[in-house]
């Protein structure tokens, strides 16, 4: 894993109208790292992800202060916000398939980026479906409507679609909330393999998932960064903050 920060967040503050949501977060994410973000509901975890790819700008009344730099560049200085979002794949809690075939779900972003050669599209679709551990299950029915897939396969299709524009950062927001444990474990294996190609930020309410996957874990509570450390420290008997110890052991949340 590189020692160069991929993402640098400095004094990040967020309000929805007059309601403060994030309170001066400062942290970095290393290139090739899996960072888990944990914390009770309403801690600002999903809002943090929206700040990273600037979809927070689509939320009425949202106001952001502080800075987020990717590869050293402040994302507010990036004029082409769509180019920024292509660099940051996003997987939401519930699978949201486009109302089109499995093939076209994955080919949609590459086509929007100007790829029209059928052989190149075929290769991209197969590559992404393989990366999402879905290819073997759907290769003979690529022209089936993607929304007809079972929930677990739809979520893996969502991951394949997020990978289709070759992001260098992948954000997952509670990806396993609506899928079965077996599919969850399959996707976790996918994430372990993807870490060699990209930086991954995993928002999860499943503390044991963070423990299994993450190099480091960030604990948010009421919009405050309580603690960020190596995952084995966060889940040890002696993290730095008492609230961390109590949360990961289920005393509240």
Automatic annotation (TrEMBL):
Keywords, sorted A to Z: ATP-binding, Nucleotide-binding, Phosphate transport, Transport
Keyword Transport among UniProt keywords: yes
Alphabetical list of Pfam families matching this protein: ABC_tran
GO biological process, one term: phosphate ion transmembrane transport
GO-annotated molecular function: ATP binding; ATP hydrolysis activity; phosphate transmembrane transporter activity
Database matches in PROSITE patterns: ABC_TRANSPORTER_2
Cited InterPro entries: AAA+_ATPase, ABC_transporter-like_ATP-bd, P-loop_NTPase, PstB-like
Cellular component GO terms held in the UniProt record: membrane
Keyword Transport: yes
Highest rank taxon of the organism: Bacteria
Residues annotated as domain ABC transporter: 7-247
Membrane-spanning intervals of the chain: none
SUPFAM superfamilies the UniProt entry points to: P-loop containing nucleoside triphosphate hydrolases (SSF52540)
Name of the protein in its database record: Phosphate ABC transporter ATP-binding protein
